[in-house]
Amino acid sequence: MKVDREEQDDARRERIARAAFELFARSGLEATSAQDIARAAFVSRTNLYRYYPSKMHMLLAHFEKAVQASRDDAVERLSRGANPQQVWDKVTGRMADLGVRYRHLVGAVGHAVLSARHEGGRTDHAGQPPGEGVRTALTLVALVEPVLIAMRDRGALRDGVNTHLLGTLLVDACLLALLHGGHRDQREVLRDWQDRFSLLLHGALVPDAAQERACEGGAGPDTPLKTRA
User: Fold this and answer.
1) In the CATH scheme, what is the code of domain 1-52?
2) Where is the HTH tetR-type domain (predicted)?
């Protein structure tokens, strides 16, 4: 009985987050009311706040689920022996596409993640509760880190490189580029990301790997993990 109730709660929680995101994507965060979300998710406003205390919680919940799905796909591809560069291209390509398609929501997610990390988990100026933005940041790092670990295992990273810290820096670079880049399309996002990644990864890659990536054509916008020597 208890398991059934938990499953129902999980299903309702997911339904609310999905309905909220669809409304946010169409009308924006501010223009969407709690009543709009409750109606779309077929729950009362009381039940809505029982599962999520704010619209930001709903947005981050859906975002985290989408990121987790991308991570699962990346990990599966890596476990089958896929080239880390190809996996990275797919991950960043999808992130860039979503960043442009939902650019009116990027600010809310980006500020929640960066502010929560900066504030050390305290409530930020937008009322974001402790832990939520940090959890989303960790979810993003967990998406990036398996690719870095695969690169390390193939000897492409220098000994002693902290893949978690490097992943955090790459995630921050992604978010800052989306927040301040003013990109018009996915190609512009990837070009901007590549410039930032080149600087961050240059010291982490072993010299031979950095040189090889430069020779492979690291200047191309469709290969954001490749670096210029």
Assistant:
1) 1.10.10.60
2) 10-70
In the chain, where the domains are located: 1-52, 55-215
Which residues are CB-neighbours of 4 under 8 A, at least 6 positions away? none
Burial 80-109 (b: 16+ CB within 10 A, else e): eeeebbebbbbbbebbbebbbebbebbebb
Model confidence pLDDT, tens digit, residues 14-57: 999 999 999 999 999 999 999 999 999 999 999 899 999 999 99
CATH code that applies to domain 55-215: 1.10.357.10
Q: How many CA atoms lie within 13 A of 49 on its CB side?
A: 5
| Measured distance CA(56)–CA(32) in Å, rounded | 11
Choice among 71-85, 171-185, 187-201, 204-218 with the minimum mean pLDDT: 204-218
Q: Are 226 and 217 in contact (CB under 8 A)?
A: yes
pLDDT at 2 over 80: no
Burial state string for 38-56 with b = 16 or more CB within 10 A and e = fewer than 16: bebbebeeeebeebbeebb
Contact 108/87 with Cβ under 8 angstroms?
no
Q: Which residues of 153-183 are buried (b: 16+ CB within 10 A; e: fewer)?
A: eeebbeeebebeebbbbbbbbbbebbbebeb
| Cβ-Cβ contacts under 8 Å for 35 (sequence gap 6 or more) | 45
Q: Quote the tokens at residue 130.
A: 């402790």
pLDDT above 90 covers what percent of the chain? 49
Task: Measure the CA–CA gap between 67 and 63, rounded to whole angstroms.
Answer: 6
Residues 48 and 45: their CA atoms lie apart, in Å, by 5
